[in-house]
Amino acid sequence: MTAGGCTQPLLFRFQDRLWIKLDHSAVPVHSACVADAFELLFHYFHVLHVQYPPELWIVYGFFEKALGIKPTVGKSVVLSEFCQHVLK
């Protein structure tokens, strides 16, 4: 996916290691912890000012709310109700 000329960052596992794909490069994640890798993925989205993939915006919105990150995803009744039930 492309947004503003930048390919969407994505997290993947290859040969027992986590990587983040940025444009045409793969950046190794120097931790085996998925939570650390996901945090790094969030950093790339924010540093590069890239929007979340439209089909995953609700997932990223949930993690923003769960992690206490200032929300970048617009208000959504579905997301609000889901977070109320899950984050009690």
What features would you describe in this structure?
- The chain has 88 residues and is an alpha+beta fold.
- It has two domains: 51 residues, no CATH class; 36 residues.
- It is built from three helices and five strands; from the N terminus they run βββββααα.
- A three-stranded antiparallel beta sheet has the order 3-4-5, with helices on one face. Strands 1-2 form a two-stranded antiparallel ribbon.
- A hairpin with a 2-residue loop joins β1 and β2.
- The longest helix has 14 residues.
- The radius of gyration is 14 Å and the shape is globular.
- It starts with a strand and ends with a helix.
- The model has no long low-confidence stretch (mean pLDDT 80).
Topology:
Layout: E1 2-3, E2 6-7, E3 10-14, E4 17-22, E5 25-28, H1 34-47, H2 57-67, H3 77-86
Antiparallel strand pairs: 1-2, 3-4, 4-5
Helix pairs in contact: 2-3
List keywords for this structure.
single chain, 88 residues, alpha+beta, 2 domains, 3-stranded antiparallel β-sheet, two-stranded antiparallel sheet, 3 helices, globular
